[in-house]
Write a sequence for this structure.
């Protein structure tokens, strides 16, 4: 690469870092005179890079918003951050929102990397392991995601058609508070104006989303992620379970996260390590997984309801006691 070409690319990198750069500053960084900086800017304009001049005492040059993405120049750390972000998003099921876009973007970056750096990044990717790869393919439509995100940002109502788990479709109007990604799925939460209550909707079941006139105020209280998780815990299922567990909120949450249960109160503000009795409520389609979960909690507990759970816990306790008494020679 010739020195002038190298300086042109350095100029582009300086402009990409943001803000307005004075001609004097650019000339000093590039080791050239001011008229040479102007010539380099003309070369960038010839290449289609949207550089605009800013007049005035503090004027200079800056990148304008253009219809094309300017060439990117990444150092080793930046390239690693971008590729790891794409890989992690794809492994977590988040890349599905844009189809194969994350794969093609990673491939394009990989092709232009210097061979030595490319080999090092390949080694990093090959050594990665993910404990909970998502096997779900319920990806939202990109247009739907962008429409809802814009409505959240500008506090605009949205209307859409929604299909429930039985395939029934209804028209909804929502004041969206936020978008949440959880366990490989995308959700939008907000006030369903048709019923006047907070609701959570899966984005992959939404069609025909459009922004409506008007605006709304986001209420104080839990954030979008907490609303989604608490909604999961309160969803209608076959069994309603109420427990009393002695311990701290942190100890209880270690086995009963917000996505499956509600805990009746916060930890003691003066002494977060203080232990007391908490009421824990949840809904479940099946109860057979709860006895082992209660055993793993290793905290005093009492079952308020249902009686079927009490019987299952006693059955597990009997089997464990029998196994502990059984001689090893059997």
């Amino acid at each position: 690469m010739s020195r002038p070409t190298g300086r042109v690319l350095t100029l582009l990198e300086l402009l990409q870092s943001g803000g307005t750069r004075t001609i004097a500053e650019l000339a000093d960084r590039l080791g050239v005179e001011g008229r040479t900086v102007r010539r380099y800017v003309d070369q960038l304009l010839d290449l289609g890079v949207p550089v605009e001049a800013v007049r005035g005492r503090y004027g200079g040059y800056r990148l304008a918003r253009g219809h094309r993405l300017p060439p990117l120049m990444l150092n080793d750390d930046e390239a690693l951050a971008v590729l790891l972000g794409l890989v992690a998003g794809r492994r977590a099921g988040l890349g599905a929102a844009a189809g194969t876009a994350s794969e093609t973007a990673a491939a394009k970056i990989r092709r232009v990397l210097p061979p030595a750096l490319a080999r090092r990044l390949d080694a990093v990717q090959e050594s990665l392991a993910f404990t909970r790869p998502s096997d779900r393919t319920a990806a939202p439509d990109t247009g739907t995601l962008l429409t809802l995100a814009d409505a959240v940002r500008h506090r605009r109502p949205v209307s859409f058609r929604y299909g429930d788990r039985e395939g029934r479709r209804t028209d909804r109007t929502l004041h969206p508070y936020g978008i949440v990604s959880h366990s490989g799925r995308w959700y939008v939460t907000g006030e369903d104006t048709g019923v006047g209550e907070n609701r959570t909707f899966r984005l992959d079941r939404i069609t025909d989303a459009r922004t409506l006139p008007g605006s709304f105020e986001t209420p104080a209280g839990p954030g979008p992620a907490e609303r989604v998780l608490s909604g999961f815990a309160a969803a209608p299922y076959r069994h309603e379970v109420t427990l009393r567990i002695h311990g701290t909120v942190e100890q209880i949450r270690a086995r009963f996260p917000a996505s499956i249960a509600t805990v009746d109160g916060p930890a003691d503000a003066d002494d977060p390590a203080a232990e007391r009795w908490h009421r824990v409520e949840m809904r479940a389609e099946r109860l057979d997984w709860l006895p082992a979960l209660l055993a793993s909690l290793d905290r005093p507990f009492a079952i308020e309801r249902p009686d079927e759970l009490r019987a299952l816990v006693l059955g597990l306790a009997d089997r464990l006691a029998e196994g502990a008494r059984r001689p090893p020679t059997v």
